[in-house]
Structures are given as C-alpha cells and as structure tokens.
Amino acid sequence: MRISVIGVGYVGLVSGACFAETGNNVICMDIDAQKIERLKEGEIPIYEPHLEEIVKENLKEGRLEFTSSVEEAVAHGFIVFVAVNTPQDEDGSADLRYVLTVARDIGRCIEKYRIVVIKSTVPVGTCEKVRDVIGTEIKKRGLDIPFDIASNPEFLKEGMAVDDCMKPERIIVGSENSRVEEILGELYSPFVRTGAPFIGMDLRSSEMTKYTANAMLATRISFMNQIANVCDRVGADVMKVMRGIGSDSRIGPKFLFPGVGFGGSCFPKDVRALIKTSKDFGYDFSILQQVMDVNEMQKVLFLDRIRAFYGNDLKGKKFAVWGLAFKPNTDDMREAPSVYVIDELTAEGAACYAYDPKATETAAAALKDCGPVRFGKNQYEVLEDADGLILLTEWLSFREPDFDRMKSLMKGLVIFDGRNQYNPKTLARLGFQYLCIGRPHRESAHE
Ligand SMILES: NC(=O)c1ccc[n+]([C@@H]2O[C@H](COP(=O)([O-])OP(=O)(O)OC[C@H]3O[C@@H](n4cnc5c(N)ncnc54)[C@H](O)[C@@H]3O)[C@@H](O)[C@H]2O)c1
Predict the structure, then answer these.
(1) Distance in angstroms (rounded) separating the CA atoms of residues 228 and 420
(2) DSSP labels, 106-152
(3) Does residue 18 carry a catalytic annotation?
(4) Whether this model's pTM surpasses 0.85
(5) Which of 266, 352, 370, 436 is catalytic?
(6) Which DSSP symbol is given to 50?
(7) Which of 27, 99, 394, 433 is close enough to 414 for a disulfide, judged by CB 3.0 to 4.6 Å?
C-alpha cells in the first residue's frame, strides 16, 4: 500500500519504518527540514533500539522516503497518518495546533480520495474536528473531494518502540464506516498474525481508549508509590509486596515498580488532558488529580531524603547522577524526574556530574538552565570525589556495577536509588549507605 506519515518523531518515524518493513511504500513528512535532510542520509535523530537498521534497510530498498513537502506526502499516500506532537497546553488540555495545521494542509492539497488516520494522542472529538477542517478547506477550493477519517492511537513504548510496533498487543481503529476498518485491517494484518486482536470501534471510543490506557498505567504507578511510602513507615519491603501482588492474575506484574515518579512525553500530559476533558464535560475526575499530585510529591520526597541525609545543607556537595532520560533505552528527556532533581540540587549549591548512556545531548538541552552540571563519558568517571550517587534511570549497565571500583572513587559511600536497583543487604555488606524507595534499612532474614 502507499502510505504517508506526517510528523516524523518517536511515533511517526517508527511507524513509517515498520510499515515500510512489511513491504509498503512509505513517505514520511516533517516540517523540520533539517531533520528530513539528516534522515535522507540515513542519520537517525532519536535513539531507539533497532530503528537505525530498519530505516537504513528500507531507505536502501526504496520503500521508505523522506520529504518536507506536505503536497508530496498527501499526493503519495492512499492512507495518510498524522503523528505530529500534541503537547500540553497551559490549561492542561492537549494543544491541538499541530494536528489542526496538518488538517488544514491536507484540505488545501488533497486531490483525490484519501483515508486520513489520526495516530497522535488526541482528546475525544478531535477526529471529528479534523474531518470538519479538511472538509472546510476543500470547500474553500470549490471542490468536492471525498475522504475518510480514522483514529488509530499508538501504544508503543519508547525504548521498545520498534518491537512494540512490529508485535503490538492490539490494534485499535476507530472509524465511521466498515470499509475504512477493513483497509486498515489489511494494512495491519502482518502485525497481528500472531493473534493480537484488531479492535474496531467508533472514533470517540478509540480516542478515549488511548487516554484510558495511559491514565490506568499512571494510576498503577502512583498507587505503588504510595504503597512504597507506607512500606517505608511500617518496615515492609515494597519489592516483596510487589512480587506478592503481581502474581495475582487479576493484578499482573507490570507497571508496579515504585520509584521517583513517572515522566516522559505521554503520561503526565495525557493524564492532565483527560482531567481537562472530563472537566469540560462537567465531570471531576478526582482520582487522576491525585495520581498527578502523588507523582509530583514522589520527587519531592526523594529530594527531601537527600537533603535530610546531609543535614539540610547541600552547599558545596558533589553528586554523581546515573541516568537522565525519563526511562532506559531512550534519549527522551521530556518531563524526566532528573530535571527536577538536578535543578533543585544545584539551586541549593550542589554540583552534579551526570552520566546517561544515550541522553547526554538531549539532557544538555533540558538542563541548560540548571546550575553546575557536567556530563561524563562513562558511569565511573562521574563518581570521582562524589559525596553521593543518585540513580534516576534504571539502565541495564547500572544493575551490576563494579562496587569496589565505585568505593575507590567516591568520597561519600552513599547511594540514593530512585529505582530500587540493588539489594539493601548486599550494599550494607559492601559498606555503602543505601537509601531507596519503600524498603527497610534493617537486616532481614529473608533477603
Ligand atoms: N512518544 C511516545 O512514546 C508516544 C507513544 C504513543 C503515542 N504518542 C503520541 O504520538 C504523537 C507524536 O508523539 P512523538 O513523541 O512522536 O512526538 P515528537 O515530538 O517526537 O514528533 C512530532 C513531530 O511532528 C512534527 N510536526 C509538527 N508539526 C508538523 C506539521 N505541521 N507538519 C509536519 N510535521 C510536523 C515535529 O517537527 C516532530 O518532528 C503525540 O500525540 C503523542 O502523544 C507518543
């Protein structure tokens, strides 16, 4: 099939490359001309495992092309996916200006029947808005060109995006007629061969499904963070509790890890957008407000622990920071807890020497307004003379570090672990003070 993807970010680039990988003829379009030029050379602007291989391979095979011309994209694709960003607006709602700009652009240059598929995460009713905007633009041109609109929310996880895209757990398609659902079913058939469900529904239910999924996952995380805070007080170990409840099939083991709070480009903005949509429709979605408040508080509590450890005086302290991206296997710094933590530490007179396996470049931009932050080339370099280590992203290379080497480099043998990566008993034996989330600091016979 001839496919176009408008908006070449984490979602658009991965989706475009995966559609090409299954034999489709794909053009990806973005207004960022510099990004497009780099992509034409096979240079990938983001870090995402396996993405580079499939982009390069499909470029070489001629199944994947890049352009900054929206006319070219709309002329090419029988199906035109819209995957532009929908950031948070000032009032918490989703800022739809990029989606609606694309809708106007499509309406201005569409020449024959197209299926326009909204892949961006958009509030309920947006697909209908997009349909109206395209229709108005066509009318302004004195033409009557048929087109259909569909909603196809994306559920990929950054850091596993290619895998998730090639082997989705389900495909959701919202549409207004069964022919569109059938065509998209055909496009997705190679992706759901192993039995993942293809679920067709109406536009509004599809839009709502995406927000519901993210809101539910964010709620699990905030819930577990509060359980961890109670564990801390009552002397229980949240990691054991997590295993205990995760084996219950009604609960399941995923998205139960407590930590320093969720970040990223989706959960915070999507939860806030759902709160706002609910409010606009006269409903107070109170649980979700709590989910966000708990998430903010989690970062504060973590910092308070660091402050308290040093008698509330961080002036002149030197911290090594392991991990900056909002989660492992990505370079995405959007709403990463590291920004808050480093900003606060440096504002109180501490210096941070940070290392992230992939996010140094994006972190340098995200942390540019903070106080003194330097970036190391490896995880050990940043430990030299550090008064403490702060772990914020659970990259694999931090899991089994060389503790003896760490001891020889650090001035203060203390680890503040925002991701519960280590065994408290082992670290105590090694001579480290270890402050983590929701686990007792006393010895236990059950370690
Ligand atoms: N990142 C994720 O993990 C993820 C997962 C699921 C859904 N989503 C949703 O998918 C959408 C895209 O997210 P993303 O992370 O890929 O965003 P992104 O910021 O990485 O990329 C968006 C791209 O759209 C381009 N763009 C903006 N306006 C444009 C226009 N008028 N014409 C052409 N290109 C334009 C930007 O230049 C940018 O390259 C968002 O709605 C997001 O909520 C994201």
Answers:
(1) 11
(2) HHHH--S-EEEEE-S---TTHHHHHHHHHHHHHHHTT----EEEEE-
(3) no
(4) yes
(5) 266
(6) T
(7) 433
